[in-house]
Each structure stands twice: as structure tokens, then as C-alpha cells.
Amino acid sequence: MKAKDLRNSILQLAIQGKLVPQDPNDEPASALLERIRAERTKLIKEKKIRAPKGGESVIYRASDGSHYEKRGKGEPVCIDDEIPFEIPESWAWARLESVCRVITDGDHQPPPQVAEGVPFLVISNVSSGTISFENIRYVSSTYFEALDDSRKPEVGDLLFTVTGSFGIPVM
User: Fold this and answer.
1) How far is CA 108 from CA 41, 132, 151, 162, in A?
2) Which are the contacts of 76, defined by CB distance < 8 A and separation ≥ 6?
3) How far is CA 33 from the centre of its chain?
4) Which of 3, 72, 106, 112 is most buried, judged by most C-beta within 10 A?
């Protein structure tokens, strides 16, 4: 087995909850998702984030064994065809939008560069899961401050490239 195949196999086992024994004392994912939903509801009321189109998504397994998704006040819809594999009982499926404050993309135009100022990340700064500040570009503070807050990375944000070298995640 090649190193890449081994890595992919380990990652697959990890996302399926099969890499290590599950601790029955761990809080179930459903409790964490409820806290996230409460926080998102608060942020929506404070107009700090937008409500998702169609309402918040709640994915659950019904007594018939099928997975359903309910959005807002809509009727639950069976989503069994979207569930790629079984997960441990204490885990839960969720849409990415349900656990993120905001999902957005960066600026689509090359930024106006200056010799010194605010460091500005571009695709070439992301490599092998890290951010490199070598050859960093700079923008003026005026330009940076004019950007929408959702386009300004903060500590704890997950950055995911979508052009150039597609799909390189960085935290």
C-alpha cells in the first residue's frame, strides 16, 4: 500500500468514527448542535449573521431508520440518498452552513497592492495545509477596512482554497 492510500484509508476510518473506540461518556453531537443552533439564532436576531435560505437545517434519523432534513417550517424530506455512510450513534449529520457563522468567498479582483500595509492572503500563500507569509502582498488599511467583515479572516477560521490548487484547507 502506498503512503497516499494509507493516509486516505486512515482519514476514511476517522470520518466514519472507526479509527478509535467511541467513548459512551462523551456528549452526543446532538447536544453540541443544539448549542450551535441557539448561538446562530441569537446572532441572526442581533443581525450579525444572515438566516439561511429556507430556514435552519436539522438532520435527524426517524423511527423508520431513515434520515430526514427539516428546514425552517417546511416539511421533513428524506435525505437517505445523501448519507454516504453510517456514523457512530452519538454522532450526527449536519450541513456545513449549520455549524458555521458564515461561509463566503474572498475578493474576486486582484487587490490594489502597496509596499507596506495590511497583509493580504492570496491562493499562492496557501500550501500543504499551512499559510506562508513569504512573498506576502499588502493592501492599504483603507482598502482592508472597506472589505465586508465576512471576508476578513479571524483566529479560528477555516480557509479553504477554491481556485488554483483546489481544496487545500488551512486553519
Assistant:
1) 30, 21, 11, 12
2) 62, 68, 69, 70
3) 14
4) 106
Q: Give the single-character DSSP code of 147.
A: S
Rounded Cα gap, residues 10 and 94, in angstroms = 22
> How far apart, in whole angstroms, are the C-alpha atoms of residue 171 and residue 159?
6
Cell 443552533 locates to: 37
Q: How far is CA 118 from the centre of its chain?
A: 25
Position 51 pLDDT exceeds 60: yes
Residues 6+ apart with CB under 8 A from 147: 107
For 92-149, the pLDDT digits (tens) are 999 999 998 888 877 677 788 999 999 988 877 877 777 888 888 899 999 999 988 8
d(CA 52, CA 56): 6
The enclosing H or E element of 137 equals: strand 137-139
Res 135: pLDDT: 86
Instruction: Specify the pTM.
Output: 0.71
User: 39 Cβ partners below 8 Å, 6+ apart?
Assistant: none
**Residue in this structure with the C-alpha cell 427539516, named with its chain if needed:** 70
The three-point CA angle 103-79-82 to 5° equals 65
In percent, how much of the chain has pLDDT > 90? Answer: 43
